[in-house]
Specification:
The protein is mostly helical and 420 residues long. It has a domain of 170 residues: Alpha/alpha barrel (Glycosyltransferase), CATH 1.50.10.100. It has 17 helices and four strands. The strands form two sheets. Strands 1-4 form a two-stranded parallel sheet. It has a two-stranded antiparallel sheet with strand order 2-3. Helix 9 packs antiparallel against helix 10 and helix 13 packs across helix 14.
């Protein structure tokens, strides 16, 4: 009963699977005081990183703890909890369908046709929802553990990792061979790898919990092995190669995943490859002299896709800068543009969407912008208080299923944590 509710394809509130629908009205003083007291108990430190960490923690601790306490009572759900007769894969294979593909009115039983930017509401989305549910819950529980030190949160988070990546009864097969299928055309596509962006934050959380001693060796090595196989799929399977070679947001998301999974698996050559690809492929092919993303501006949802790619590349920049110790936010192309200029291009349109120079997006125009991680990460890198202030003024999460699908990083605390 609970599984059917959580994976209902037509749920009215997309936040319901994550237990979040009532958590963004918790600004009363009695609810915030425990979070503020928790901050006071943190180790005192005057470093800039500590100040920034506490800035984010002040905003996020109340809903992190509220949501984590809800998740303590929920059981993990994986791809094995729902299936689709249209999938060419098996019970353990992740399956999704191309968003913008619809039945052909002139040939209803024939191959689907494309309507760019218009999401087909009849698509199978249960596996995507299950993955996002895991991403939300494991990340919130991990963050709660890091904040409080209470093992109950870590133990519950590890239940999700074991269910998804270890337990032979429930684990997902380490590939995305059947993602973003198109009825009557293909059983899967390389672009389906973009669905895997929702593994990124759980992997970050998992590595932090390992550093804190909350992950046993058996679980750690089993999850490592799963992602080792997954990176083989990403780098050697024709679908993985196809996604890697795309130069728009899909290429950005490939590097986002590959760089982080390489960190988990200790794959230094893959980390070096991701850095090279950032410098020689992603920015040169995507970033115009004015800081815009022309490939995203050409879409029917130019505003939403520009924000999505900004976040994807912003997360990539944060990951690679952390791995290398370099400031990749200011690493510039010959014409002078860099990731900071990409953020500054979008900054006025995030502040005031009415001045956006292109037509409104064909769908979900009203749902953007949000508390985009690129704003926060760039603000930290540049010590730009206006960017960080803008980040604090925006809604923390999307209110639609489409928005949640395109918003992979929800707990920036996990990306700022350095053993506080």
């Amino acid at each position: 009963m609970m599984g059917k509710l959580l994976l209902n394809l037509r749920q009215r509130n997309p936040l319901r699977p994550f237990g979040l629908e009532a958590l963004f009205h918790s600004a009363s003083l009695p609810r915030i005081l425990p979070a503020l007291l928790l901050l006071l108990l943190m180790n005192a430190c005057s470093s800039r990183e500590e100040v920034l960490y506490k800035l984010v923690a002040t905003r996020d601790i109340p809903w992190i703890l509220d949501s984590a306490n809800v998740y303590l009572d929920l059981q993990p759900l994986t791809v094995t909890a729902a299936s689709c007769a249209r999938s060419a894969g098996g019970l353990h294979d992740f399956y999704s369908e191309g968003d913008y593909w619809w039945p052909d009115p002139e040939n209803p039983e024939g191959p689907y046709i494309r309507r760019d930017g218009e999401t087909n509401p009849d698509n199978f989305t249960a596996h995507r929802q299950a993955m996002r549910r895991m991403s939300f819950q494991s990340s919130a529980l991990s963050a709660a553990y890091l904040l409080t030190g209470k093992e109950k949160y870590a133990d519950k988070a590890l239940e999700h990792f074991r269910a998804w990546f270890v337990d032979p009864e429930t684990r997902m097969n380490p590939n995305m061979e059947y993602a973003q299928a198109i009825s009557g055309r293909v059983t899967g596509r390389g672009v389906g790898l973009i669905d895997g962006i929702h593994f990124a934050e759980p992997v970050q959380a998992f590595m932090l919990m390992r550093r804190k001693g909350a992950v046993d060796d058996q679980t750690f090595h089993a999850v490592q092995d799963w992602f080792r196989e997954f990176t083989v799929f990403m780098t050697q399977h024709p679908y993985g190669i196809d996604e890697r070679e795309r130069t728009n947001n899909h290429g950005s998301c490939w590097v986002m995943q590959a760089a982080l999974f390489a960190e988990l698996t200790g794959n230094d050559s893959l980390k070096s490859y991701c850095l090279k690809r950032f410098r020689t492929v992603l920015l040169p092919n995507q970033l115009a002299a004015d800081g815009s993303f022309p490939l995203e501006l050409a879409r029917t949802k130019a505003y939403g896709y520009s924000l999505f790619n900004l976040d994807a590349l912003g997360i990539v920049t944060r990951i690679l800068s952390t791995q290398t110790g370099e400031d990749l936010w200011t690493w510039s192309l010959p014409e002078g543009q860099n990731m900071l200029s990409a953020v500054r291009y979008m900054q006025p349109f995030i502040h005031d969407k009415t001045i956006w120079p292109l037509p409104p997006d064909v769908m979900y125009w009203d749902e953007w912008p949000l508390r985009h991680p690129a704003l926060l990460f760039a603000g930290i890198a540049a010590d730009d208080k206006e960017l960080m202030k803008l980040w604090t003024q925006l809604p923390p999460l999307p209110s639609t299923d489409e928005g949640l699908r395109n918003f992979p990083l929800r707990f920036p605390l996990l990306w700022l944590y350095a053993g506080h």
